[in-house]
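fold-stage: in
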Amino acid sequence: MKSGLDALALFGGRPVRNTPLSGPYPGALMIGKEEEKAVLRVLREKNLYRFYGPGKSAPSQVSSFEKAFAGKIGTHYALGVSSGTAALSCALRGMGIGLGDEVIVPAFTYVGTPGAVVSSYAVPVFAEVDESLGLDPADVEGRITKRTKAIIPVHMLGAPCKMAELMRVARKHKLLVLEDCAQSCGAFYRGRRAGSIGDMGIFSFQLNKIITAGEGGAVVTNNYDFFERAVRCHDHGAFRVAKDTGGTPLIGEGYRMCEMSGAIAGVQLRRLERIIANLRRAKNYIQTNISDLKGITFRKEADPKGEAAAAVVFFVSRREQALEVIRALNAENIRAVQMYNGLPPYRQPQFLKHSTVSRTGYPFTYPGAGKVVYEAGMCPKSEDLMGRMVCITLNASLSKRDLNDIVEGVRKVAAVCI
């Protein structure tokens, strides 16, 4: 650490800002009268449930949202569900993933991604991410076994993965691809929306996401059979698609999106382009004005023009240095985080100990799954990157003064800590 400690707010100096920046919440901070009107309309019509109710002469808000969302993403089908995790579960079951199957997931992701695989009684196999913080296609190929059935690229913090390379690997080995777009709604990869490239895609509308309904999610696909199974999974096996009047009944679960969530999500979807434009403008401004700093490197993006720009991410030389930078930035009232405490899901206790909600311990106790071991050091490159990263999450309401404060804060901290 360099001299000048006394200038940092962390050590008693005056902070760049007197109050913290508003939280990330890109969609939530844009909520206004349109969302209010949409919710009040649902309440006045007493239409809280999409399929029936006292005011069912009115069109379903969820159905309207699904149609608009499929059009926005560029897929034939979209299904509104109760959360991003529900979307993962419905998509995995829609693709037929189940007991004894292996699904390759990135070492850098939220625990919900591999958790949904486990809930489907399949086994998550963790693969390295590269400097883009997306799945490394070369490492993915090296982890494929005869039990591998699918790959889940996770588009982290607004930036799409290397989908062309990942799709080549998947097609070569006849694997399904499920895009996890929970953090990257609206992003593009080479002219196509994230979520429309693989066999299925999922989205989250939780409060912290690019667009929000407070909670909620969506499944998208061009494959009708996958869609139809996902629909039945989300509604206790019921046939809800008009052309499905027969077929084999299924035992499903209850992951339906309610009408108020559909109403809010529909309004937020109309705000998506403005939200992303604001996020991109903020990110470009910050990165341009700190790009000359020595000792930091920005993440390498697979398609910089297509990113949804949810955060500014850079790496420093050591984990200890990253933690010091993060502490110092927060003392300056510039919100910075180390994502998931710098640890991949397999280093979380529930994965290390194979602790599931199932009394049987499936899938880990299933003989056909083989011996499953999770331990520190499985993906050393990912662990190194996660430990050295500094993440400044953005929102779509940052003023020019806010952006200048972020730039000043990073430069001030870098002068001492990097």
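fold-stage: in (second)
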Amino acid sequence: MNRSSTLSILVLLISVINLTATTAWSQKLAQRQAWQFETVAGKRTIVDHGNRRWVTYYPNGTTAECEELDRTPEYLEIRNAANQAVLRLYGSFGTVRKTPEGPFKRFAAGHWLQDEDAPASASPFGTTDYKIRVVYFVPQDRKPTSNYQDKIDVVLTLISDVMTRDLRSKGLETDGPQFEQRDGKTIVHLLRGNKKAREYSDLPNFNSVRHFTSITGEVERRLGSLRDHIVVIFAETYEDGPADRVWAGHVARAVANPPNGGGAVFSAWMLRDELCATDIPAQRRGFVDPTPIRGRTAIGHRGPDSPRSEFIEDGIGGMLHELAHTFGLPHDHRAKRVDIMGEGFRNLRWNVTPTHGGRQHATFSNESAWLLMASRYLNSSVNRADNQPPQARLEANRNGQGVSLTVTATDEHKLAAVVVLDHSGQDRKLIAGQRLSGKRQIIKQELPWSLLPSGNVRLQVIVVDSGGNHTKLTGINL
């Protein structure tokens, strides 16, 4: 073999070795998804949630947001959003720089986790995939209701159908809300609570906010963050005793964390055998069933012994209403008895039964529909790589006819919609909005006094871009 041939073979061998090493190293880099270290209070884990977003999970169940800054063969560099400290995570230890000019100092021994070692708080829901997670929350002193998986699948199938049909009727392209599924059925995560039912509801001193946060807090600690997924929770925390409306301990609340997350909690009395069927045709019949529920009063309807149909509307319609909140929708009382974000969800029978006698379907307003179509969970064309919210500036002035608004909005990709809310009371109500396009728009909006409350006026403006990011301008007092 001549010198030239030998040299060529050596070069080829070195290339193969380098390629193998590079491939192996790339695989190792790809595995850097969760880093864990010990503290006096317990194990702390920092988890990759995609799009350069990391979340620190503390032993007490709280979390902290972090941003990935750099990724090298030796370390991963992230910045804590709250205190701006910069961390470098190595294979066996971590360093921290607490000020921009300061040096990096070692703060703990730590290591990268394998997938099977990832903490329960970070792994059960998996990565953000824009499939809605469903949880059936059952306290330690309660038993799951019969056939809960089939019942929940029926409820959510009807909800999805109503939302999809309404948006398509407005000429909008959507497949509707997509729930996490397996073999064509909704996956229901059964979560047994750590406490008894009354420790969540706090009856007789019921407080819906505490009820909501105690349940969602436990879901987040054990299953995953409501910032990474939209999560629908059926809560088995109501009581069978006397109640002014439906059942004591009833809860119906939601939170929106756009563009990736949100959460809704609704009482699981809707899954009771007398109210919830295990197949769609039977459930549709329930929407027109006049059979009285003895001793019970439906919300917002007639007195005791209200018809079964009204409880079903309150339950399934109420869950639809709360789910819409998780997408970022406010209340809308302009057509209160028709709008799903008003009281229209209590007239859902006209949407789900074969004939509706000419009655108007419950519907979303156009402004609500524009917000829904900016959601990553409802519109596959939304730019999921865009995580920068739009920039917005507002000018507002009273005049003889009402209030004049000028909103200047810009986005690096594309604007989607703007809505104006009356925030004068405890509730936020949608009063106006426009569909947007392009990267920059100056929006003029006239609000007549007929749309506004008397006395002091407090407004909120929300600008949404084509990535589903929301920018809120709050505390506008006139």
